[in-house]
Design a protein that fits this description.
The protein is mainly α. The chain is built from 10 helices and no strands. The relative contact order is 0.11.
Length: 213
Amino acid sequence: MDAQIAAPARREGTRLRLPPAVRSQQILDAALAVFAERGYSAARIDDIALRAGLSKGGLYAHFSSKDEVFEALLARALVAPQLGEPPSADLGAEALVDWLLDELYASFHRPELRAVLRLLVAEAERVPGMVARWRVTVIEPFLAAVGQLLARHVAGQRPNAVPSLLAREPWLALSPAVHALLMQLILPDDLLYPPERIRQAHRELLLLALARC
């Protein structure tokens, strides 16, 4: 379990009055820790409430069931990187790739994302609608944004160039980072490639692909 996601159990007597939005986030933090420790099936609402410093009734004031807590946790964690726009419209290939990788790896390195993906792999059959919505509302728009970004870059450098493979299939531009994230889910730390090696190889691959457009 990632140490950063662990949330210490609280006693009921120490509970503070918090705004509902803040309390909901606290419950989700507690749920992530409990799910990571026990798995979804073995986790109980009582366990989550205790970890959040609430009574069961206090938790039910925010979420109606364990499934609802789980779906809210997925919705919070499974968000695409905030790609936005590059700092300049005329970035060279190296600067553009470095900016894109900064955005991508900052998101993929979030401990919460790794923990929630582990849960999702184990529990995907429980929430098929959530998985489908995630692909439609998060993954596909992000891939489209990456494809458009790379297409604009190639068009700006070589106006008459045929659209590049990366622009047509933008998931390829993310593949090394996705592979690294998958390895983090299934391998112990001592068997992982160093992060700097992964990122450098990713950088070189993208630059090579853009140069061949």
